[in-house]
Amino acid sequence: MDKNKDKLDKIFDLQAALDLEIQTKRNLNFSKSEWIQKEILAIISELSEVLDEVNFKWWKKDEEIDDEKLHEEIIDVLHFFISMCLRAGLDSETLFRLYEKKNSENLKRQHGKSTTKNYEEV
């Protein structure tokens, strides 16, 4: 792996290699739509595991958060998110560019400078 590569590029490369190995080893051949549906379900499943780590059940006694387990579950979400990006045809550069654009718009909305309705500054 190229040490001069951007970290996001490396993450995308690592996930693409993992996805290819799993797909090949398990002989999986789903349509783009099916893959994305599966990625969404996996993300939902992993997010519920994140919830379990942060004591969301107000009716139970809180336990100290195990940061290592919490981080592991968040990384699982990232794995499936990056996999979904790859399946949708988003590379790291496009993801970054689109994120910057949307982030800029979200900031404009918070400052009342967006042309989007109902985002006047509070």
Question: Keywords for this structure?
Answer:
mainly alpha, Helix Hairpins, 122 residues, 66% helix, 4 helices
What this model shows, in words?
The model has no long low-confidence stretch (mean pLDDT 93). The chain has a single domain (8-55, 64-110), classed as MazG-like (Helix Hairpins). The protein has helices spanning 7-25, 32-53, 67-87, 92-110. It is extended. With 122 residues, the protein is an all-alpha fold.
Q: pLDDT average, as an integer?
A: 93
Integer count of domains: 1
Q: What portion of the residues fall into strands of 2 or more residues?
A: under 5%
Query: If helices are DSSP runs of H or I spanning 4 or more residues, what is the number of helices?
Result: 4
> Could you say what the CATH architecture is?
Orthogonal Bundle
Strand tally is: 0
Query: Which blocks of ≥5 consecutive residues have pLDDT under 50?
Result: none
H/E topology pattern: HHHH
> What is the CATH class?
Mainly Alpha
Task: Provide a quick synopsis of the model.
This protein has 122 residues and is an all-alpha fold. The protein is 66% helix and 0% strand. The protein starts with 6 loop residues before the first helix and ends in a 12-residue tail after the last helix.
Draw up the topology in text:
Blueprint (H helix, E strand, L loop, with lengths): L6 H19 L6 H22 L13 H21 L4 H19 L12
Helix pairs in contact: 1-3, 2-3
